[in-house]
TrEMBL record:
PANTHER family per UniProt: CYCLIC DI-GMP PHOSPHODIESTERASE PDEF, SIGNALING PROTEIN YKOW
Keywords assigned by UniProt, alphabetized: Membrane, Transmembrane, Transmembrane helix
Gene3D superfamilies in UniProt: 3.30.450.40, 3.30.70.270, EAL domain (3.20.20.450)
Family annotation (SUPFAM superfamilies): EAL domain-like, GAF domain-like, Nucleotide cyclase
Name listed for the protein in its UniProt record: GGDEF domain-containing protein
Single GO MF descriptor: cyclic-guanylate-specific phosphodiesterase activity
GGDEF domain span: 442-577
Length: 843
């Protein structure tokens, strides 16, 4: 219907197209420059599109109902436009108080739009009589309502005068900014805006027949703003290109100055800096110098170039030279008159004509200067002066940085107490020695020294005595050190000695220094009238003879030191390379186990039944199995110790507990498990964790498992770390309903005293005893263990029962339960379930 009236459609379509294009431009520019008036103009343009479209639809209406619908929308758009019309022009003009007025207008507009939506004849009319069609020509016709204008409708047109006020305000601002062309364009739009408001009011009052023209005024305003934006962007581009060109020129100068900027060596950095200065200035003499605090101050060059070539450093007093003014001014420039201005100067500068100098400051004080001097007049440019000042500032920062780095390097490599190199310097020295030894096919010795019973000095005499001992040893070791012997404090009471063996066999060199250093250490130390005598244990490694990489050096020496302390104090132990292979194997196994746990793969549970003398299953022990895709089946005897030493046992234990609970829930749902308890092995690290019990109960609660379904097995060795704390934790678990079993009884540190304290329900005889059951002493020991268990009202389980004769003998001793291959091997969950139901059905 909208397109049937050709001329009317063309008129409104062109207006809508222009508005839509303006909105796109405003959105792009707004995203680029983040200005309020660009965003406001985009919203204004979008609302203008809505207003123009509803106006078009209104004038194309075929019924009163259609016309009322579209005029209602048109009215809402007209009201919504006013705040953003104001915001666009006011923010464009930088008028104060814009935001406050905008929000007042926005609130008023929102209230008007809501009222307009609720009224049957819109806000503009009290009543509607008919829809009149006006035919201008065959291609141009339009419709409009004949209605009685309301007071609110008249007020709406008066509200529109805010647009006129905004335009007037903006026009005034543009006139003040001497933007005459823009002010003239806005004046024209202002006049048309006034006419369009009066024209619209006359149409609503029924005085004239005509089209609403306000939308075309909005379009004209959008066009003016777009033209202004394009013009402003053109000017901005020119300014930006000019600034970019200026910046590029200065950047080129600075880049030339800063060539080779990150040189690690301080003097190299300064030489490269001067070379850059020479390349852009061609000055005959360029130097960087420091200024002393003497009176008169003395200038001493740090680096200098003559004709672009490094030259010897020199010095001179600053009096009666152009450098004297640098102490007072930022920069000093003499283009051609040094000899005339300083006739009495008798320095290295007296032969030059042109001069430029700038100060280098540290902490606000002039501590140095840059100088460029030439024998002929030079047109020093402002950009060169600016670049020189910038680089002087940067050079000042570099001087400060180098000073700090030198200080930090000293601190980073020095142990404060002993004044010996520290561990960081030790590692660097080992790395350098290792590279040298590999290239020269020589060997070096690392000797690790650990003072014996040093903690007793701190405890018995005092920490000040310990500190004094370390300081005294530091003095002695510094006196002993030489070009081929390097001492460092590794940590605590541990010291390291790096010894170059040179042409002597390393074993002989080691023996010689071991005895000599031991004599140095054992010499008494007097502290407050007390004589302190020391000794030490040591571990040594010869590298690269005994190691694969430089990373193995310290590790090898530490392994040897641990051996030395284990076998007895005051000993020297040389590293055995085979131990490193075993350690690497253990660490490889740890990495593999960590991966298996994290990916929840390769690890699985099997269940070995525990039965009574009649063969009826009373429970099962959950056992962990590891099937590696490359290395095959890995025994628990291999990976459980690795898990314990690495701390992975806690995470591994949590996975086992969760898997067992999940399996118990499955079996209970199948309705066959009954009172059969499932035993889980608990490591000492798990018991030591205060969160063990809450986590355990949370897991049981998650799978709705009662604690009486679980038996917790602990070993004797796991109890020894904190016997009292462990007893308290086991009692708390037992009170919750868990069964507590002591596994491998008799293989650890058995003591009846602590056995009586433990809250036990089950005592398990280790299979190593059952295997020797035919031995009289072993048989008597087992009989005693069973008797102890029965006397304490404990169930006694014999592990490793593999033969009928073993079962019979143990039964005669009144053993309660049996666990071993004679009754059943460890089985996967499904197989155990079948075995259980089959075995218990028979009985």
């Amino acid at each position: 219907m909208l397109f049937e009236n050709g001329l009317l459609a063309a008129l409104f379509m062109s207006s809508l197209s222009i508005n839509a294009l303006a909105v796109g431009i405003f959105v792009v520019v707004s995203l680029k420059f983040y200005r309020t008036y660009f965003a406001a103009a985009a919203v204004f343009g979008l609302l203008s599109c809505g207003y123009q479209y509803t106006t078009w639809a209104y004038h194309s209406s075929a019924s009163v109902a259609d016309a009322l619908y579209w005029v209602s929308l048109q009215t809402s758009f007209a009201v919504a436009i006013i705040p953003f019309y104001f915001l666009t022009l006011a923010s464009w003009s930088d008028w104060p108080g814009t935001r406050r007025i905008f929000f007042i207008l926005l609130g008023t507009a929102a209230l008007a739009i809501l009222t307009n939506a609720l009224l049957p004849n819109t806000l503009r009319f009290d009543s509607v009589e008919q829809l009149v069609s006006v035919v201008v020509s065959e291609q141009f016709a339009y419709a409009h309502l004949v209605a009685k204008q309301s007071v609110a409708g008249l007020g709406l047109h008066l509200f529109g005068l805010f647009m006129v006020a905004s335009l007037l305000l903006c026009n005034y601002r543009m006139y003040q900014k001497n933007k005459m062309a823009l002010a003239l364009a806005l004046t024209v739009i202002l006049l048309i805006q006034l006419l369009s408001i009066g024209w619209a009011s006359a149409i609503d009052a029924g005085s004239v027949d005509g089209l609403y023209l306000a939308g075309f005024v909005f379009t004209a305003l959008n066009v003016v703003v777009c033209v202004h934006v394009a013009y402003s962007l053109g000017i901005f581009k020119q300014r930006f290109e000019q600034r970019s060109e200026d910046k590029k020129q200065l950047t080129n100068v600075i880049n030339q100055l800063a060539k080779g900027f990150r040189s690690e060596d301080e003097d190299s950095f300064y030489f490269e800096m001067l070379a850059s200065l020479y390349s852009i200035s061609k000055a005959d003499l360029i130097f960087l110098a420091t200024v002393s605090d003497d009176s008169p101050p003395l200038v001493q060059t740090r680096v200098a170039l003559s004709q672009g070539v490094p030259t010897d450093n020199f010095e001179y007093t600053i009096d009666n030279t152009p450098c004297e003014r640098i102490l007072e001014e930022a920069s000093t420039i003499y283009t051609q008159s040094i000899q005339q201005d300083f006739p009495s100067a008798n320095t290295s500068l007296s032969q030059f004509t042109a001069y430029i100098g700038t100060p280098i400051k540290l902490g606000g004080k002039v501590t140095g200067l840059f100088v460029l001097a030439s024998r002929t007049p030079l047109p020093f440019s402002n950009k060169l002066v600016e670049a020189l000042e910038i680089f002087a500032t940067r050079a000042s920062a570099e001087m400060h940085r180098f000073q700090i780095e030198h200080r930090l390097r000293d601190l980073a490599y020095l142990d404060y107490t002993t004044q010996l190199p520290n561990q960081a310097k030790l590692i660097e020295t080992i790395h350098q020695s290792y590279q040298f030894d590999v290239q020269s096919h020589s060997n070096t010795i690392l000797l690790l020294i650990d003072l014996d019973r040093f903690t007793e000095i701190n405890r018995q005499i005092g920490y000040d005595a310990g500190e004094y001992v370390l300081q005294e040893l530091g003095k002695r070791f510094r006196l002993y050190a030489s070009e081929n012997v390097f001492f460092a404090r590794k940590a605590g009471d541990e010291f390291a000695v790096v010894i170059q063996s040179n042409d002597t066999p390393p074993e002989e060199t080691l023996d010689l220094h071991w005895e000599a250093i031991r004599a140095v250490v054992k010499h008494p130390i007097c502290f407050k009238d007390r004589e302190i005598r020391l000794d030490f244990s040591a571990g040594a490694v010869i590298f690269p003879q005994q190691t694969h990489t430089n990373l193995d050096v310290i590790r090898g020496a530490e392994i040897a030191l641990r051996q030395s302390k284990t076998e007895g104090r005051g000993r020297l132990q040389v590293f055995d390379p085979t131990l490193l292979k075993a350690l690497d194997s253990q660490r490889k196994l740890e990495r593999m186990l960590r991966t298996a746990i994290q990916k929840n793969q390769q690890l699985s549970l099997v269940y070995q039944p525990k039965v009574d003398i009649e063969g009826q299953c009373k429970g099962a022990e959950a056992l962990l199995r590891w099937e590696h895709p490359n290395d095959g089946s890995i025994s628990p005897e291999e990976f459980i110790p690795v898990a314990e030493s690495s701390g992975l046992i806690v995470l591994l234990g949590e996975r086992v507990i969760e898997e067992v609970c999940k399996q118990i829930r499955n079996w209970l749902n199948q309705g066959w498990l009954g009172e059969c308890k499932i035993a889980i092995n608990i490591a000492s690290q798990q018991l030591a964790d205060d969160e063990f019990k809450p986590k355990l109960l949370a897991t049981l609660n998650q799978y709705q498992i009662h604690p009486n379904q679980i038996e917790l097995e602990v070993t004797e060795s796991s109890l020894l770390h904190d016997i009292q704390g462990t007893v308290a934790k086991l009692k708390a678990l037992q009170q919750e309903g868990f069964t507590i079993a002591l596994d491998d009884f008799g293989t650890g540190y058995s003591s009846l005293s602590y056995l009586q304290e433990l809250p036990l329900d089950v005592l398990k005889i280790d299979k190593s005893f059952v295997e020797k059951l035919t031995n009289q002493s072993a048989s008597e020991l087992i009989s005693s263990i069973i008797a102890i268990g029965l006397n304490m009202d404990l169930q006694v389980v014999a592990e490793g029962t593999e033969t009928e004769s073993q079962v019979t003998a143990l039964a005669n001793m009144k053993c309660s339960l049996f666990q071993g291959y004679h009754f059943g091997r460890p089985m996967p969950a499904e197989e155990f379930a079948n075995w259980y139901q089959r075995t218990n059905a028979v009985h």
